[in-house]
Amino acid sequence: MSDRKAIRPYHQPAGGWGALKALSEHLVEQGVAIKGAATLSRMNQPQGFDCPGCAWPDPKHTSSFEFCENGGKAVAWEATAKRCTPEFFAAHSVTELSGWSDYELEMVGRLTHPMAYDAASDRYLPVSWDEAFAIVGRHLNALPDPNMAEFYTSGRTSNEAAFLYQLFVREYGTNNFPDCSNMCHEATSVGLPQSLGVGKGTVLLEDFDKTDCIFILGQNPGTNSPRMMTSLRNASRRGAAIISFNPFRERALERFQAPQSPIEMATLTSTQISSRLYQVRVGGDIAVLKGLMKVMVEADDTARASEQPEILDWDFIRGHTTGIEALADDLRATQWDAIERQSGLPRAEIEHAARVYMKAERAIIVYGMGITQHRRGACNVQQLANLALLRGHIGREGAGLCPVRGHSNVQGDRTVGITEVPGEEFLGRLEHRFGFKPPAADGHNVVTALEAMIRGEVKVFFAMGGNFAAAIPDWQTTQAALRSLDLTVHVSTKLNRSHLVHGRDAVILPCLGRTEIDIQATGPQSITVEDSMSMVHASAGRNTPASAHLLSEPAIVAGVARATLGARSVVDWDNLVADYDRIRDAIEDVFPIFQGYNARIRVPGGFHLTSTARERIWATPSGKANFLIFDGLGEDPQQNDPEALWLTTVRSHDQYNSTLYSMSDRYRGVYGQRDVVFLNEREMKRRGLAAGDRVDLVTLSTDGVERAVRNFSVVGYSFPDGCCAAYYPETNPLIPLYAHDPLSFTPSAKGVPIRIVRSGSPGEGDLDGEG
Ligand SMILES: Nc1nc2c(c(=O)[nH]1)N[C@H]1C(S)=C(S)[C@@H](COP(=O)(O)OP(=O)(O)OC[C@H]3O[C@@H](n4cnc5c(=O)[nH]c(N)nc54)[C@H](O)[C@@H]3O)O[C@H]1N2
Ligand SMILES: Nc1nc2c(c(=O)[nH]1)N[C@H]1C(S)=C(S)[C@@H](COP(=O)(O)OP(=O)(O)OC[C@H]3O[C@@H](n4cnc5c(=O)[nH]c(N)nc54)[C@H](O)[C@@H]3O)O[C@H]1N2
Ligand SMILES: [Mo]
């Protein structure tokens, strides 16, 4: 959609007619208006496919069609009529394509043939599948050490493909599994087990119908998990309090018009979502959380002194937790002026939010990237666990922690063995089931894989999906490292940046998407995925594949495994791929929680993978849930530059990670452009800037390396002091690789200290409308 550049505030609620219009335009643009509508009707249905968009659960996968603008876009993006063919590659050199925008690259359409890079012509040329597999096998077998290869996974990959992938990689001999979750919810996977003994959420969808209070921190449901709006709307209409903490006044956190509601649609009314939305400073959440808990602990002190009813759930705390005294002492000693400075919120507002929380019998705490993608991301998550534990909100109906996962199967991939730090029990079961000794040494995550590449210790990079080169931080250094490799391999559905930031040899392996029929030797297959709430269910595509030359992800893994391991493999790859039930049987043998896997996915709605914390069983060394203390309030104590503006990098309403559906961001009122920085009027004035001025964003690096993006346009916006926002991935060059959480290694994409300077070149002055 070629929107004209403009800044034009959006006055409608989220959802509603605006969402219907946007989706229908998108279907037309992808050339799938009719097929798209038929495809959408099978989304998240008992016999249909799982939405390839987000990981939000569906009401048992048994409901009637639930309209979701962004789920619809994700489906139309995959079902598009456009094709990226060998003729296209013949017409455009890689150097030429490198000058195209990310939007233009993916708009070419679905990949149709396996392709291999030819340096002489600087082009990708078509190859047979056997040749493509042979190139990969030859490179992998040439490495003196399997740890010189990295095997990335993006979270759309099914349980079946992910399990086969880790099986192949471990039989090949490494645990190098950098995963998209390393840039996403790793802070949850690493932080929560120390608190609760599990690294996943503790709520189910039905808990949203029973709660009296929902806190949403650093998550944007109207854009990134729009089906959640149904739960939020219902909760709000029941009178549950919804409190949001976000530097942006995200529209869907304010008002939502349900496309499913004939009354709201006909009368143009909407439902208020948040009872209060607090514009917290970027990186100010620790301060807010400590403030909330300080109010609670001190109110409890007072109540107990005067024999009033207790505020904290002492029965729960005494029976189930450790560490309360130390935490309470730390909170009592924390000063309000520091909390106010760091959070950007007045004490009275934090006290108000605390009172709402203290009144609630059952509270759910929802969070996303605004919490995890910080230098202290895992600690942020642990403070959320503290907040829940103080009132006994874990393992109680209508209450709990709700990390909103990103990719539709990112959680499942982890569950079936995509991990760089495999446990002994898992490795033992894998060895017992398959009869080879898997490697035990820890492998690389995203950050350590990149560091190893930069040191020249890696020769091969293999990606099962995703767009690694765009998703990672510090492009100047990290993309150079990717270019220095011997081989890069991408299993993909569409052309993207990662195919152009390639090694000496490079292969693109085009695969089936989730909406497409997957036929193997025994007939049509279904795959399975696990959503944010640990529900596992089947998914089967119905569309004719985009090209007759595509293979499924499991078949591609089997092909690579055969070409690499040959007769030395102990796995019968063809047999497993012939019938995905056999892969599921193998998963069940290795992971006992999948007991009865094949039978249970044939029940509509699938099944729930139990979470010990939900049962109040604490799988921690202490056998209890642990209150953990965060020392101080700041996320980066090294960074005291008074000039620093804290930059957060966010998604627009019209993108799926590195996939751009358009150059606009309707709810935030930005059209036809993404090179913008959101800044409040005070911060603009302080710098002598006006809306539309062109500026460079420069990282306040501590390693002497210059990191900058240039010629961004200033957008005046309601935003807290001392911080600013811009879009991901355009601003990824600004995030230093060293700026990651020491516990979870999550890059600090939501907290980069920068300064803003006027650009050398003149502005384009192309804005119309208000601003
Ligand atoms: N349509 C669509 N759906 C998606 C995706 C997509 O790109 N498009 N991506 C998928 C993936 S992989 C993921 S991980 C999820 C991401 O979904 P979200 O977790 O919602 O991710 P973001 O949009 O990056 O940022 C979340 C929110 O955090 C706020 N924020 C930024 N910094 C801070 C901070 O310091 N504190 C607080 N409290 N808030 C802050 C931002 O303003 C934004 O509203 O969505 C998934 N679903
Ligand atoms: N600055 C900044 N950086 C970030 C973030 C941020 O908020 N700010 N967010 C981070 C997060 S949360 C994440 S999850 C990562 C995302 O990182 P990735 O998961 O690596 O990236 P995506 O953009 O989701 O990948 C898109 C590509 O996936 C391929 N694809 C799509 N569907 C399929 C499929 O079914 N199979 C296969 N094999 N390929 C498919 C297509 O070729 C498409 O081009 O980015 C991270 N990077
Ligand atoms: Mo993500």
TrEMBL record:
It comes from Bradyrhizobium erythrophlei. One of its GO terms (molecular function) is molybdopterin cofactor binding. This is Oxidoreductase alpha (Molybdopterin) subunit. Keywords: 4Fe-4S, Iron, Iron-sulfur, Metal-binding, Molybdenum, Oxidoreductase. GO terms for biological process: cellular respiration. The lineage of its organism: Bacteria, Pseudomonadati, Pseudomonadota, Alphaproteobacteria, Hyphomicrobiales. Belongs to the prokaryotic molybdopterin-containing oxidoreductase family. One of its GO terms (cellular component) is oxidoreductase complex. Residues 645-753 form the Molybdopterin dinucleotide-binding domain. The keyword Plastid does not apply. InterPro entries: Asp_de-COase-like_dom_sf, MopB_CT_YdeP, MoPterin_dinucl-bd_dom, Mopterin_OxRdtase, Mopterin_OxRdtse_a_bac, Prok_molybdopt-oxidoreductase, YdeP_MopB. CDD domains: MopB_CT_ydeP, MopB_ydeP.
